[in-house]
Amino acid sequence: MPVIRLIDGINEVVGRIVSVVAIVFAGIIIYDVFMRYFLGEPTRWAFDVTKQLYGFYFIMLGGYALRHQSHVRVDLVTERLSHGLRRWVEAAGYVIFFFPFAWVFARRSLDFAMTSYGQREVTYGAVQLPVYPLKIAMFVAAVLLLIQGVSEFLKLVLGKADHLEPMEPFDVR
Q1: Of the candidates 63, 57, 62, the residue with the CA atom closest to the CA atom of residue 22
Q2: pLDDT 10s digit of each residue in the chain, 173 long?
């Protein structure tokens, strides 16, 4: 289905781009350690910047993780069900649990982001970094997670979900 390919493609691209942020914040941490321990000149900004970059990295990869079935899953009950029944139990789980949570997450994070943006919120401390970009990213991440949930739900309903195939022992997909 084109909608599934589009949603999966969006989250794949976002995930690959955002994964580069890990390299950036690792580089900043290495730079700060070098400055602090080798030159005796610690930076005032590195901790705050890496904290915000990690928050951005962590939140933005939710849709990507869902696309690759990387979220924690406790399937003590569903692993014993037949393939067809397991599909419908998972689809019901999306309707009952996932979609309401993702909708509230998106709605509340939009309010949160707009309040922060309206106030031009900044961090406190020696370096005052803007906080609202991170909060706006939280809303974008919530939307990406929600639409990826739509894709996963459609895959379940249409019988296109490969993660339901029986796994070999010690398979950690």
Answers
A1: 57
A2: 899 999 999 999 999 999 998 999 899 999 999 999 999 998 988 888 888 999 999 999 999 999 998 887 777 777 788 888 888 888 999 999 999 999 999 999 999 999 999 999 998 877 889 999 999 999 999 999 999 999 999 999 998 877 655 555 555 55
- Residue 165 backbone class (left: φ over 0; alpha: ψ -120 to 50; beta: rest): beta
Nearest to 63 by CA among 140, 164, 173, 148: 148
Q: Exposure string (b/e) for 123-134, b if CB count within 10 Å is 16 or more?
A: eeeeeebebbeb
pTM above 0.70, yes or no: yes
d(CA 151, CA 158): 10
Q: Which residues contact 73 (CB under 8 A, 6 or more apart)?
A: none
Question: Which residue shows structure tokens 């942020």?
Answer: 21
Are the C-beta atoms of residues 141 and 63 closer than 8 Å to each other? yes
**Distance between CA atoms of residues 7 and 9, nearest Å:** 5
